[in-house]
Amino acid sequence: MPASAPKNCSIFRFCVQAFLCLVLAAVLLAAGGTPAEQRRIQLEDLTKIVTVSDPQISPDGKSIVCVVSRQNFDEDRSDGELVLIDVATGGQRVLTYDRKGIGSPRWSPSGDRLAFVAVVPYVKGKKDDTTKRGDGPQVFVLPMSGGDAKKITNAPNGVEQFAWRPNGMDIAYVTSDEQANQKEIEKHNDSFEVGDNDYLASGAPTSSHIWLVSAEGEKTRRLTSGPWSLPKSAPPSSPASPISWTPDGKSLTFTRQEQPHFGDADLTTLQILNVESGEIRKLTSHEKFESFGLFSPDGSQLAYWYPRDSDPNNVNEIFVTSAGGGNGIDLTRDIDRNLQRAIWMPDGQSLLVGGHDGTQVSLWLQPLKGKARKLSLGDVNPAWLFWIDAAVGPQGEIAFTGSTASHPSELYYMASANDAPKRLTNFNREMAELKFGKVEHFDWQGPDGFREDGILVYPPDFSKDKKYPLVLLVHGGPTAASTSVFGGPAHLMAARDYVIFQPNYRGSDNLGNAYQRAIYNDAGDGPGRDVMAGIEAVKKLGFIDETKIAVTGWSYGGYMTSWLIGHYHIWRTAVTGASVTDLNQQYNLSDGNVGGRYSFKGSPWTGTNMKDYLAQSPIAFASQIRTPTLILSDTGDARVPVTQSYQLFHAMKDNGVTVKFIAYPVGGHFPGDPVRSRDVYSRWIGWLDQYLK
Question: How confident is the model over 375-396, as pLDDT tens digits?
Answer without folding.
Answer: 999 999 999 988 899 999 999 9
